[in-house]
Amino acid sequence: MLEVLKTPGDTSWFTRDRFGMFIHWGLYSLAARHEWVQHNEKIPNDVYEKYFKHFDPDLYDPSVWAKAAKDAGMKYFVITTKHHEGFCLWDSKFTDFKATNTPAGRDLLRPMVEAFRKEGLRTGFYYSLIDWHHPDFVLDPHIGPYRDHPDREKMNQGRDMARYAQYMRDQVRELLTGYGPVDIMWFDFSYPKPDGSGKGRNDWESEKLYKLVRELAPNIILDDRLDLEEGWDVKTPEQFTPRSWVTFKGTPVVWEACQTFSGSWGYHRDETSWKSVAQLVEMLVDTVSKGGNLLLNVGPTSRGEFDYRALESLQGIGEWMKRHSRSIYGCTAAPADIPTPQDCRLTYNPQTNRLYVHLFTWPFKYIYLDKLADRVEYAQLLNDGSELPLVPTDWTANAASEHGSRDNTLVLQLPTPKPPVTVPVIELFLKK
Ligand code: GLC
Q1: What average pLDDT score do residues 319-339 get?
Q2: What is the pLDDT of residues 50-67, one digit of tens each?
Q3: What residues line ligand 1, using a CB cutoff of 6 Å?
Q4: Which of 178, 207, 225, 356 is the most buried (most CB within 10 A)?
Q5: pLDDT over threshold 80, residue 103
Q6: Residue 258 alpha carbon, nearest atom of ligand 1
Q7: Which of 172, 67, 169, 56 is nearest to 112 (CA)?
Q8: Right CATH number for 334-430 from 3.20.20.70, 3.40.50.300, 2.160.10.10, 2.60.40.1180?
Q9: CA dihedral 260, 261, 264, 267 (to 10 degrees)
Q10: Which residues of the chain form CATH 2.60.40.1180?
Q11: Under CATH, to which class is 3-327 assigned?
């Protein structure tokens, strides 16, 4: 098996569980047109205030959210405690810009954490390093609602990033001490530029933040966006599928792709680029086949419900997971000497020594699995546990080799119709 870079956090549960839910929920859910709406439309804070005044998630029931995540097969969740707009979902002592002071009138984070824990999911906190609302956050020339405001320089007078960095430490302390054990800390994001503009480790005082996190939660899993060379536990490719196992300086690392159902993280009413259930299941499988995790995002509405389109997709994924999660949990990339058949993805469970062949297109009659003829003891379809007899080599000599070479090739005979599941999976029990 691949040697993965050792890091300080405990990733053992993480690389077993493989599948989590990201949740982006904040004031942008009222605008319903992307969580970057304040930046995109250059909305000044006094105008953005209208969302603060009208944030009233009267239908919010986190036990419904937690159940939807669990039924989809997700094992952990990561919630935006604060996004770039600066709004806090919890009752922070260090700001008034929080859920408690909106019509919601209460801490929205606590019941969420409790509900997800009750369903057995682990907890992750996303915390935005960027903060367009905090009075000490120095306004950037490239990013944020004031990026090309004529008075930006003047507005920056008296702002003090050191005070802002202290504010972040105070809030992170609140989050890591007030809500029970937190399993993941997800900071977002750094953008240092070679010319000194942008923001990175010096602005956030990342070293201090890092020490604080490790002091309060030594085993927590930390993402890689603090602009620190070392200390992170997980690489976080976003909105694309890596070609192969993610590496850092040539060494494979623990990694997690974060992906959206559609193009937006926050609730976006008019967004139409929604992925199909098949695409989403294939994305999950593809990720695990490269040794990664998938963090799939939901943007709840301002009334506190999951987007109906997200719910439909979650149900579709859950249908598949119900019968196929064995090819996901505890699985990783297949041993390097096993070739991947055409249109397939392989995952492998080193504990049970089982190999999973995911068929993205359903072939006619046979599947040819090179290098496996003498290594497989039993084969079945995972959706219904029906045997796929190991076809004796001489019987299939014609079929297998007439039009191609054979290389210790295992031939399995398949039913003609594709099994009625999104992605059929063959489970191969390898010989000890
Ligand atoms: C980005 C975006 C953001 C989103 C995040 C998720 O950095 O700024 O809106 O929260 O990625 O990975």
Answers
A1: 97
A2: 999 999 999 999 999 999
A3: 24, 35-36, 188-189, 238, 258, 265
A4: 356
A5: yes
A6: 12
A7: 67
A8: 2.60.40.1180
A9: -120
A10: 334-430
A11: alpha beta
